[in-house]
Design a protein that fits this description.
- It is a single chain.
- The chain is α+β, with helices and mostly antiparallel strands and about 280 residues long.
- It is built from four helices and eight strands, in the order ααββαββββββα.
- The chain has an eight-stranded antiparallel beta sheet with strand order 1-2-8-7-6-5-4-3, sandwiched between helices.
């Protein structure tokens, strides 16, 4: 029988052979951890800088992104494949030209979603901004601070929003919404009387009766964001591409869960269910 020393001597070459492989694996893991920690520290530092801003002063400018006009996206065309995707309950992403008809550089992304609920139920969800928390992913604060019915039948809704991308890193911004019932639209920009953490924002909700399903709604959503400085890829992706689909997704879920819901009472006078309002 081999002695204990012989056994240890016999096994030691195997340990020696495995050591380089284990060492490389450990070093690879350590590098990934260090990269993650470094990125996290950069984000935390950036978030700390954003939180120190005085938001009760005017924004640096009065608009850089071109605002959306209320009403349909006239340049948007849906094909048979798009209709098939929508019929399965999935969202469709489309690209339309930006200002001046530019392509990739000036293009704007739009998300389309079919909702098995009437427009009144969908407007109930979109306009109820004070109750977005718990419905919208990563949204930490959402509260109206100014609401006014205008002489032309539109309503102005100014809202403070805070979105947290990762722990310790968030964006606080102030939106100036215009609800236009005769156009079945809500459009918005930043409220330039306040300082926002985003450089600029421009967005548009538009609703239409479903072309073939009575009592159902086709939802169109676009939101452009301009950042003040470069941001990591995951943050950019969450606040742009992912946010588009998530927005129509939560509106679909909540609207279909309460198809009997009506327009919030403060806007009800300007809304006629089943058709566009007349003024």
């Amino acid at each position: 029988q081999p002695s204990r020393r012989d056994t240890m001597t016999t096994r030691s070459p195997l340990l020696v052979c495995k050591a380089p492989h284990l060492s490389r694996t450990i070093m690879s893991i350590l590098r990934r951890v260090l990269v993650f920690v470094a990125a996290l520290l950069c984000l935390l530092v950036g978030g700390g800088e954003a939180k120190k801003q005085n938001h009760n002063v005017p924004h640096e400018h009065t608009g850089k992104l071109p605002p959306y006009s209320p009403g349909p996206f006239d340049v948007l065309k849906l094909g048979s494949k798009d209709e098939e995707t929508l019929s399965k309950g999935k969202a469709v992403m489309k690209q339309i030209p930006g200002e001046g008809g530019k392509g990739n550089e000036g293009g704007r992304a739009i998300c389309i979603q079919d909702v098995n609920a009437p427009k009144s139920a969908v407007w109930n969800q979109i306009l109820d901004l004070d109750h977005y928390i718990g419905k919208v992913n990563k949204l930490k604060e959402c509260k109206n601070y100014y609401v006014k019915k205008n002489a032309d039948g539109t309503s102005t809704i100014k809202t403070k929003m805070v979105v947290g991308v990762i722990p310790g890193y968030s964006y606080e911004y102030y939106c100036d919404h215009i609800y236009s019932p005769k156009d079945d639209s809500v459009t918005w920009t930043l409220d330039y009387e306040k300082m926002s953490d985003f450089d600029d924002v421009a967005g548009h909700w538009h609703l239409e009766d479903h072309p073939t399903k009575p009592g159902c709604t086709r939802v169109f959503y676009a939101c452009d964001i301009k950042f003040k400085r470069a941001v990591p890829g995951p943050v950019m992706n969450f606040l742009t591409k992912s946010a588009l689909k998530q927005a129509t997704s939560w509106v679909k879920r909540e609207s279909e869960g309460k198809p009997e819901a009506s327009i919030p009472k403060q806007y009800a006078i300007a809304f006629v269910p089943g058709r566009r309002s007349k003024f």
